[in-house]
Amino acid sequence: MLGCTRAVPPEEIVCGHRKGEAIVLRVSTKGEYGVRIMVDLARHYNGRPRSLTDIAQVEALPLAYLEQLVKLLREACPSLVTSTRGAHGGYRLSRSPDKITMGEIVRVLEGPIAPMICAVEGDMTQVCGFLDSCKTKYLWAKVRDAVAHTLDTMTLADLMNESSEQDKGMPAHFIALSDVHVGAFYIPKQQGEPEVRPLS
Amino acid sequence: MLGCTRAVPPEEIVCGHRKGEAIVLRVSTKGEYGVRIMVDLARHYNGRPRSLTDIAQVEALPLAYLEQLVKLLREACPSLVTSTRGAHGGYRLSRSPDKITMGEIVRVLEGPIAPMICAVEGDMTQVCGFLDSCKTKYLWAKVRDAVAHTLDTMTLADLMNESSEQDKGMPAHFIALSDVHVGAFYIPKQQGEPEVRPLS
DNA sequence: AATATATCCTAGTGAATAAGTCGGATTAAG
DNA sequence: CTTAATCCGACTTATTCACTAGGATATATT
Questions:
Q1: Does CATH number 3.40.50.300 belong to domain B1-18+28-100+156-167+180-188?
Q2: Range with the lowest mean pLDDT among B41-45, B169-173, B182-186?
Q3: A31: exposed, middle or buried (Cβ count in 10 Å: 0-12, 13-18, 19+)
Q4: Residue B89 CA to nucleotide D17 C1', Å?
């Protein structure tokens, strides 16, 4: 249901990612697409294994790239998805959605949460001998903990239920510094009919 | 007092940034060095203007690069630093440290806070017409708000006072996923004596 | 058995960004 | 009038990102 790829030469229009947009604390497409995969799998939790081909088509994302991401999800310890090979194969969540936190997913896909490597999760005293005199350490550690807390207290099941209340306005008590407006959307060229018809 | 540059070919050792380290929600050197400049200026708040040459030497960062960053701080509206040109010139904070939030600094240096552009600060409804069916929007918006709240509720003055209590152990209730160990540090080759003697 | 449809695996690649570098112009203090 | 500083913009290089390519293997259906 989503049209959000990066490789869009003609019009350069995407959803979660676009080129040349200067924002901070970015999550790469690995994290974005990987979370999408997990949401899709959660949606089909009780059912036959779901193929990546289907996910790629519905989300309008490149299949070969998703294969790399799902590999990370499968090889994680403990694993997040299980696969069945062959025809009618596909992927399933290896646990129920309420047993999977978003922090787990994001860390598997993107690595530890840290604004910079001297503020990586866990013990930091080994990282930089200067840290005693480094006031900025405290700042980045606080940012890291805020993000980690947000991700670790939300499960995949929580996310599935959180689709309605956000529509009636977020708090939005922070200053809007950006002014992004996109008027059209990328429709991947497919051999058949595109089943997504965005913003006509 | 710090040795933390990126361009370190021989040994590849830095503080806040190192190459090839897979972490998520990264802040670039622009943000890191820029915050350092502000901390330095806050430390010298009541005094003669402080030259970038001095800051570059003390922090062991490239002067020409810092010039680009301080330009952002100066041209911001409202401005964060003011400059006086000529000999014995330099920079000063344009406000007292308790009137400057870390959020303001980071946004000036790095742009709006957003894990991805469809979760940029402010109104998001224009960004993606698919968002109704996009569960992941809620996740990234929450991450963004957590970061923004952390940065917006901390002033530069707060950061100056926060050097002691962090030493006696952070909460550290999050899982350590990384295991970063650095044994040595970069000492920039200077013509004279290096006044920083790290970890010897 | 053959075919179609999946997962699985490793390299490679082009574009974009990050992180500086370089050369010079302007301004003011001593 | 020399020195030390800010100011400015173009250029460069390394790294990372976001894929693409080309297969090998496994299994359900015909």
A1: no
A2: B182-186
A3: buried
A4: 41
Helix (H, G, I), strand (E, B) or coil at B84: strand
Between the two ends of chain A, the Cα-to-Cα distance in Å is 14
Query: What pLDDT digit, counting tens, does each position of B106-136 carry?
Result: 999 999 998 887 777 765 554 554 444 578 8
Minimal CA separation from A29 to chain B, in Å: 9
Contact A127, A117 (CB under 8 A): yes
**Beta carbons of A196 and A186 less than 8 angstroms apart:** no
CATH architecture of structural domain A29-112+156-161? Orthogonal Bundle (1.10)
The domain segmentation of chain B, as residue ranges, is 1-18+28-100+156-167+180-188, 112-154
- Tell me what ipTM this predicted complex has: 0.80
For residue range A49-58, list pLDDT tens digits in order: 999 999 999 9
**pLDDT one-digit tens code per residue, A159-181:** 998 764 544 434 333 322 232 22
Is residue A7's beta carbon less than 7 angstroms from any atom in nucleic acid strand C?
no
Judge whether residue B10 contacts strand D, using its CB and a 7 Å cut-off: no
Q: How many CA atoms lie within 13 Å of A48's alpha carbon, on the beta-carbon side?
A: 7
Of B23, B117, B142, the CB nearest to A180: B117
Q: Which residue is nearest to nucleotide C21 (CA to C1')?
A: B64
> Which DSSP string corresponds to B115-127?
SSGGG-SS--TTT
**Where are the strands (E) in chain A, listed by range?**
81-84, 90-93
Report which of residues A158 and B193 the model is more confident about. Answer: A158
pTM, rounded to two decimals: 0.79
- Strand C nucleotides, any atom under 7 Å from protein beta carbons: they are 4-11, 15-23, 26-30
Q: Which two structure tokens, joined as six digits, stand for B133? A: 């069916």
Nucleotides in chain D with any atom closer than 7 Å to protein CB: 3-10, 14-22, 25-29
